[in-house]
């Protein structure tokens, strides 16, 4: 693929998938600016991959896999600090983040989602928010398609119960 | 999907980059990666491309077809009221005089073409054409007056008129004939009333 075609492919992927990648990073970190940074890093890594001559058959799962790894790295780099130290340095807990774009309904939806374990949250996000197929999700998490379908089914059942009982307790 | 889950999903989907955020991030990527962006044709809505192209082809075709139009043709309006005024605007100032003279010649050439057609169709067309010729000559005279080279312009106009002398004589002759016919028919009507 020549440079011009590579650039066109890359920027087309950005135009199409940047919102989804941002959304995923935002759900995982609850920090808008951080989510933007992680989105940028995701695409920069994608570019390096393309420049190295690697072929990408399906951009969507590829980008989410990169984003997922970057989120994990970010969590690992964060030093465990006491809540007092964090608050003293100006940090606010995620459910009180001063993000003006978040409506009450959005906050509630996020709270309900956060009641699920992290891996099940991701399955729900990828399948129903980002409209990926079980096959694409399997590619992201390196699992079999059947396994993804079964886990997804369980996650949806749990979420239904959470919504019905309006269980907004502590997150998993 | 259950309605409650659908509602939850709808809320979660509302999280997205703002338009300016997305654009800024894109520009940052382009700058940092040193990308050279060619014309983003793929971002142009495909549903607009075909009608726009068709419009361009049609208007270009109409404009070109109008060049050969004669008074009486519907395209003559396109020629004299669209093509030529546009040409006047677009031409460089130093070439305006030349353009006006060309247009005077064009009017006279059109007159010649008309006069070879059937006599009956000619009358209204000749009137229209004479008006056009008069307008062109007046425009040329006005331009010459502005640029204060009236003598030179007058010479050039005289040359063109001499070249098309036969056409102008014929147009004047037809004028006289028409006036005579009108005069006789008015006379007969008045006689009838008396």
What does this protein structure show overall?
The complex is a heterodimer of chains A (172) and B (194). Chain A contains eight helices and no strands. In chain A, helix 1 crosses helix 3 and helix 6 crosses helix 8. Chain A has 172 residues and is mostly helical. By secondary structure, chain B is mostly helical. Chain B contains eight helices and no strands. In chain B, helix 3 crosses helix 4. The radius of gyration of chain B is 31 Å and the shape is elongated.
Give the distance, in angstroms, between the N- and C-terminal Cα atoms of chain B: 98 Å
Poorly predicted tracts of residues of chain A? 92-98
Number of strands of chain B: 0
Helix share, percent of chain A: over 70%
Average of per-residue pLDDT values of chain B: 74
Structural class of chain B: mainly alpha
**N-to-C series of helices and strands of chain B:** HHHHHHHH
**SSE order of chain A:** HHHHHHHH
Q: Radius of gyration of chain A, Cα only, in angstroms? A: 18 Å
| Helix count, DSSP H or I runs of 4 or more residues of chain B | 8
Task: State mean pLDDT of chain A (0 to 100 scale).
Answer: 85
**Class per helix and strand makeup of chain A:** mainly alpha
**How large, in whole angstroms, is the Cα Rg of chain B?**
31 Å
Principal-axis shape of chain B: elongated
**Oligomer designation:** heterodimer
Task: Provide the low-confidence segments of chain B as ranges.
Answer: none
End-to-end C-alpha gap of chain A: 45 Å
Quick overview of this protein structure:
Chain A has 172 residues and is an all-alpha fold. Chain A contains eight helices and no strands. Chain A has helices spanning 3-29, 32-51, 59-77, 83-88, 104-113, 118-129, 134-141, 145-165.
